[in-house]
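Researcher: Here's the sequence for the chain we discussed earlier.
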Amino acid sequence: MKTFTAEERKKIILDYVKKNEFVDIAYLKNTLDVSEMTIRRDLRKLEADNSLVRVLGGARSIPSGMYEDPVEKRVKFHAEEKERIARYAASMVNEGDSIFMDASSTIYAMAEYLDVHVTVITNNISICLKLKDKEKIDVILIGGDLRKSAMSLVGAEAVRMLENYYVDKAFLSSKAVDSVHGISDATRDEAEVKKAMIRSSREVYFLVDHHKLENRAFYKVCGLDEITALIVDESKEKYVEEFITECEKKNQHVYCVKEDMLKKKEGV
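Model: Thanks. This is the structure I predict for it:
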């Protein structure tokens, strides 16, 4: 039987998944004549590149709504809303705080506005680069498997490292928020990192622009009752107002950020 290179194996796997939506490990092992360990390693690399998603016993094509653009592209989506949320969240960080910052584009935007003595623990390489010249800020980058599109570190090693810390506040974001089903994300690995950060934080804040409300993504992160508050931008859209009303009924806190709120906080 022909011996395939790693790139040839990945192409064969992707072609099969594209045509059939699912492929199991046993089939790939026999077809490609390699070990199960090799197949699992190939699938991990393909998932890290957002080419497929691993599931029990094999892999499947990426469901609609699960694909995630690179952070450099995502940060430009709804940039005005993200900036407003990010500035407000940064104003909630106090002198001497320790905080988690995840690999989302909204949290990346928040890093620009941090200007107090604080310890930041993150799984995002881009955030480290943004903070490297800020003398007041100490940065701890956790280890793990690199997701190239997000420049983030994920996986079992990342989760284990996060369990060694306990911080004052976690600032996180996610792909979607639903008033009934809670917060969900595009990928399992990123969601598991967020869960670890939630477990190790005294207060937990999710920063989401209003376009993400009343939506669901691929993998559940947590319920709204498991966090301290949502931070969203003001919108007159009916579904946004209904979402906030529903949260208020359940005593779930939502900070709805208006431009004049930022001016008051900054003493303008």
